Amino acid sequence: MADADIIVVGAGLAGLVAAAEAADAGRSVVLVEQEGERSLGGQAFWSLGGLFLVDSPEQRRMGIRDSRELAWQDWLGSAQFDREEDRWPRAWAEAYLDFAAGEKRAWLRGMGHRIFPLVGWAERGDGRAEGHGNSVPRFHITWGTGPGVVAPFERRVRAHAEEGRIRFAFRHRVDDLIVEGGAATGVRGQVLEPDDAERGRPTSRVAAGDFELRAQAVIITSGGIGGNHDLVRRAWPARLGEPPRTMVSGVPAYVDGRMLGIAEAAGARVINPDRMWHYVEGLRNWDPIWDNHGIRILPGPSSLWLDATGERLPAPCFPGFDTLSTLRHLRRTGYDYSWFVLTQKIIEKEFALSGSEQNPDLTGKDVKLVLSRVKSGAPGPVEAFKRHGADFVVAASLAELVAGMNKLADPDAPELTEPALRSLIEARDREIDHAFTKDAQITAIRGARNYRGDRLSRVAAPHKLLDPKAGPLIAVRLHILSRKTLGGLESDLDGRCLRADGSPLPGLYAAGEVNGFGGGGMMGYNALEGTFLGGCLFSGRVAGRAAAQAAG
Question: What count of other Cβ atoms lies within 10 Å of the Cβ of residue 422?
Fold first, then answer.
């Protein structure tokens, strides 16, 4: 006898969306989650809440002319689809782009979702019109950040729970998919002992019993592998160089990738496991929530970027331009870290930190606190990292800065010298003296300030790094930060998981990061940012609706 019409495995954003959509269609749902109730919303809760939208009212108000055609050009230039396995990922990409340029904003707005008026410009690209990157700003920050994205769907799910259409099964860890007669008919696993740890904190894995649940369909929304660094290294592609020996973790340990193997063992196909998205601007969190907790700097374009040996990074490896090109370049250096060198003037204008908890003004919808960002001084969380963070050096002179950097360097790294760094910075600073320059980064800075949003809040006026009026000098040691899985369970446009022969595995669906945010990797090799949450929303909606219709 079935316990519900549909089982959803994973109570992150994609799982909440899928459960809400299925329950809206009148189906009964069991929402299974290995963590406790405090973790409802998963990784999305910790996010900045950025969403990729195309030709939005917010863009038009900021003077940005966008179109579906331009966005598709950017998507294809970034995704670089080149495999037979990209049939469904490409189809998902087209469907998602229609959603992002169409009803996405109105659909969310109808549930009370709101957007901060300044549109951000993420992943500015590799310097080619046909290459990777966003040609225009498209990064729309949710008013309320990650919790503001999760809230409408949590409300819907809890309302259905009160009516009896959705039942929660927290602390239930799925160890096996039940497949009978060639169809997925349920899940089995272990009930973990109660653990009331705060959201994101490690929880007990001690089993207190077994469970088995049956349904007409199972939707897997369990996330990726970013919290399991052994799996990350195992999947690391040769094109990105050797996997790092050390990383900081941008996601909690429960993002463990277990369900990918479990689904594969049941007959589902995993494709593009080598496609992944890790940042190169990671900081060790001075006030961590989970083990090895890393925070990403969302940088403006002005910081001077050096590798561990003191060499300046080449174009297009500028802050905020081309994540994976920069990662690939840095992996060739033989070291797991790099450096930003900047001024107080730059950090005040250009440093933002990823995560809802690092942006209390936006998360708390505090207009007065948001307006304080335009005053002198860096935002409070940034200043806290500057004061307490283990990766920051603040100095009154270049000699003092270099000495501090050498103290933080790896023991086997070449010693940085003040004359070499001074020569590099002075060469860069001379390019500020005139309206002409051969320095591509300075050209990019000046170009960015043509956009009103950047000039107001994201890009400092060009200045000399050695100008005492801009000081003090700051150096930041940057770590590789594990984050997203871009491949995953292959699925058709109904979210149905596919077997190796391309046929659907009856009763089994997937959504969110576990299926590469759509199809098994709708972003291809590169993300345009704002697409992770959006992919969870879209794929969760598709899978929830399709499973509900099939269960009828």
Answer: 14
What spatial distance separates the first Cα and last Cα of the chain, rounded to whole Å?
16
Can you tell me the distance from the alpha carbon of 412 to that of 374, in angstroms, rounded to the nearest whole number?
41
Give yes or no for a contact between 416 and 405, defined as CB atoms under 8 angstroms apart: yes
Length of the chain measured in residues: 552
> Is the separation of the CB atoms in 52 and 529 below 8 Å?
yes
- Provide the pairing of β-strand 183-192 with 207-214: antiparallel
In the predicted model, is pLDDT for residue 1 greater than 80?
A: no
Can you list the pairs that 157-161 forms with residues at least 24 positions away whose Cβ atoms lie under 8 Å?
Answer: 157/16, 157/19, 157/20, 157/23, 157/31, 160/19, 160/20, 160/23, 160/24, 160/29
**Bond from prior residue into 506 cis (ω within 30 degrees of 0):** no
Residue 532 predicted with pLDDT over 90 = yes
Are the beta carbons of 143 and 365 closer than 8 angstroms?
yes
Question: What is 169-188 written as a DSSP string?
Answer: EETEEEEEEEEETTEEEEEE
**Residue whose tokens read 């109808």:** 110
pLDDT of 118 higher than 90: yes
DSSP structure string for 410-432: -TTSPPP-HHHHHHHHHHHHHGG
The packing angle between helices 87-100 and 531-551, to 10°, is 100
Neighbouring C-alpha atoms within 13 Å toward the C-beta of 551: 31
Q: Do residues 483 and 280 lie in contact, with contact meaning Cβ atoms separated by under 8 Å?
A: no
User: For 178-230, how does the pLDDT look when each residue is reduced to its tens digit (9 = 90+)?
Assistant: 999 999 999 999 999 999 899 999 999 999 999 999 999 999 999 999 999 99
pLDDT digits (tens, 9 = 90+) for 292-325: 999 999 999 999 999 999 999 999 999 999 999 9
Cα gap 389→376, rounded to integer Å: 21
Percent of the chain predicted with pLDDT > 70: 100
Please tell me the distance from the alpha carbon of residue 414 to that of residue 394, in angstroms, as a whole number: 21
Tell me which amino acid residue 85 is: E
Q: Which single residue is written with the structure tokens 């050390």?
A: 246
